[in-house]
TrEMBL record:
Tagged with keyword Flavoprotein: no
UniProt keyword terms in alphabetical order: Transferase
Protein name: Glycosyltransferase family 4 protein
Domain Glycosyltransferase subfamily 4-like N-terminal per the UniProt entry, residue ranges: 43-163
Xref: PANTHER family: GLYCOSYLTRANSFERASE
């Protein structure tokens, strides 16, 4: 009798605060898809890691737990990846953007936090067998500026989204479901967990919309802050365009969701978005200036028809992303451990 092959086991180390309902929602969605691919995923929340004792406890516990798993997968850089790097065995880290890029503007405390996050990430990278990044732009920067930090392969695997949940829907039906049945005005959506996040630059989006209103007075900016994930498809489809004014991004989930719903975007030049806007006249990637963003919004809102933008994110469906990660795991367990 042939015994069943035990499932591959992966320990996902993360620092997404469980008290924030939408925090790390993409991670939980992907974890469920990974389980459907035959991977047993266990989650390990590091805690806040705000003092040396918390860091020591997390590192010690991870050293003890890691022997039970085939792969330890840090879900974020910064101190999360530095803590997880203490685990023996095969290790993978996913860099999502804010853990790699520094913050060039905003309050001093926020800029210092970004610098520290970047420093911790760089210190952790040499301890990982594989590195996953969200965009080709991120990989090019790591390879160009500090390739020696990553000892293994750098894979581009954007976070997945559920294309069964995010799909094109009738705009007025969605507005009706959100309590705005008679609103015919053009809506522009901006999504952020926290409105005061200096990376997202909500004031820049508001300034751009104010300028655009000089030519389109009825224009409305909707800021979706800390909205329940299951409600987001309604918000995206209720809008005529999505605006992103970030300083930097890995691969922005707000834009993935918009493309999945065939809603065009206007964005600053982050991630790999310029490659999409070069192909899609309704989408714009412009300078981080109110006038440039306002003109782009007006051009997008006046663009005739609704393009099939969904094709750009077909490969980012969470089930396809889970399968790719499963392939990376399989490659890792067949490779001698570097530790």
């Amino acid at each position: 009798m042939i015994s069943a092959v035990p499932p591959l086991r992966s320990l996902w180390v993360h620092n997404f605060d469980p008290s924030i309902p939408v925090g790390g929602v993409f991670m939980h969605t992907l974890a469920d898809a990974m389980r459907e691919c035959g991977v047993r995923v266990d989650l390990f929340y590091t805690g806040r890691l705000s003092n040396p004792l918390e860091i020591w406890r997390a590192r010690t516990l991870l050293r003890e737990l890691s022997s039970e798993f085939d792969v330890v997968h840090a879900q974020y850089g910064s101190m999360c990846s530095l803590v997880a790097s203490a685990a023996p065995g095969r290790k993978l880290v996913s860099l999502r953007g804010s853990d790699w890029y520094e913050i060039p503007e905003g309050p001093f405390a926020e800029r210092m936090h970004g610098t520290l996050a970047n420093t911790f990430t760089r210190q952790a990278l040499p301890h990982y067998d594989r590195v996953v990044v969200m965009s080709h732009a991120m990989r090019a920067e790591i390879e160009g500026r500090s390739r020696s930090l990553a000892r293994g392969v750098i894979d581009v695997v954007p976070d997945g989204l559920d294309l069964r949940l995010f799909r094109p829907m009738d705009r007025q039906d969605c507005r009706r479901a959100l309590g705005h049945p008679d609103d015919q005005r053009p809506w522009v959506l901006m999504t952020t967990v926290f409105e005061d996040n200096p990376i997202k630059r909500v004031p820049l989006a508001k300034a751009a919309v104010e300028l655009a209103r000089q030519s389109m007075p009825e224009l409305v900016l909707k800021v979706a802050s800390n909205v329940a994930h299951e409600t987001m498809p309604l918000w995206v489809n209720a809008c005529d365009a999505v605006v992103l004014t970030s300083v930097h991004e890995g691969w922005p989930n707000a834009i993935k969701e918009a493309l999945a719903c065939n809603v065009p975007f206007v964005s600053t030049n982050v991630s790999d978005l310029a490659a999409i806007s070069a192909q899609e006249p309704a989408c714009k990637t412009v300078a981080a200036e109110p006038r440039a963003l306002a003109d782009a919004l007006l051009a997008t809102l006046r663009h005739p028809g609704r393009a099939n933008l969904r094709d750009h994110v077909q490969s980012m469906d969470v089930r396809a992303v889970a399968q790719r990660l499963r392939e990376i795991y399989d490659e890792m367990v067949l490779t001698p451990c570097a530790d």
